[in-house]
Design brief:
Elements lengths: L27 E4 L12 E4 L1 H10 L2 H7 L3 H5 L5 H7 L15
């Protein structure tokens, strides 16, 4: 089965968001099961900043751990459908941190 990302050293490693599948300048590592819910050493996914920020805005850590512990599950999350429809057609690289101060 072919991989979604280039693996050859000759090919430049593209930064593709695992959730929205857009080519972006930077990605960040998202723990599919949040560290606070036991996912410190678990699988991760590279996400663009808008997707990473929006996931944490719309879904709490318990929901991420229990219902959305894979990219496929996140892609089907009802809470993210409107956002995903918008971001896939957008050239936005960064959005302000909307999590708020704790």
């Amino acid at each position: 089965m072919p991989t979604a990302f280039p693996t050859s050293a000759a090919e430049p490693a593209g930064n593709q968001c695992a959730l929205c599948e857009r080519e972006v300048q930077r990605t960040s590592r998202h723990h599919l099961v949040p560290r606070e819910e036991g996912g410190r050493h678990g699988p991760t996914a590279d996400l663009c900043q808008p997707c990473h920020s929006t996931i944490h805005l719309l879904l709490d850590n318990k929901a991420l751990a229990r219902r959305y512990a894979s990219i496929e599950q996140l892609r089907t999350a009802q809470e993210l459908q409107k956002y995903l429809h918008w971001i896939r057609r957008s050239r936005v690289e960064r959005i302000s941190n909307r999590r708020g101060r704790r």
